[in-house]
Amino acid sequence: MSLKSQPTAVTVPTKLTLLRHAEVDTRYHGIFGGQIDMDLSPRGHDQAAALAKYLQSREFDAIYASPMKRAQQTLQPLAAARKSPPVTMPGLREVHFGDWTGLSFADIKAKFNLSAWQWLDLLEQTAIPNAESVPEFRGRVEPHLRQILQDHPGGKIAIVCHGGTIRMLLSILLGLPLSRMAMFEIEYASVTEILLHPHKAEVQLLNFTPWRDLA
Prior knowledge:
Distance between the termini: 37 Å
Oligomer: single chain
Radius of gyration: 17 Å
Number of helices: 7
Strand order of the largest sheet: 3-2-4-1-5-6
CATH class: Alpha Beta
């Protein structure tokens, strides 16, 4: 994505705050959930409350979110005190893991003889059977990102979504392959902030977790 696509008259940078959903129900721990529409765990609801408290003094021109339940439930305490309702964008949902959906790391090793730790590389190599390809994934995420930036030049925007989606957004904004995003941990209920200047993207905060780092 070329940052030059933003209006050149704007000198104030656009600030994107990327928020991953909180911890999911324990029965889904350690598996590739992808597009399984799961609820938050009780701990996840506590994490979402801590995230909302941390962000309560922040002003956002708009908040966007994935339609999936775990993102919407994370969004609820954050949106409760805001005047403008958040906008749900279907394209911000998590990547589809195809035949890996619902499987653990051990299951994937036994069934496919692949290391699930390399999932970003394997996704890029189209080596995950029936999974969404990287071009397909980017093809649904990027138009939403472009629309958000076009609608709020120089604004402050929050996006509540998923670990894979955040990595795709970073990949687009930083102009790096999706597989390179394996270097970034994106924890439950974490905050990642990107400042978008006309000709560069600057990571200002990465994977800050208020529920853990402020405990």
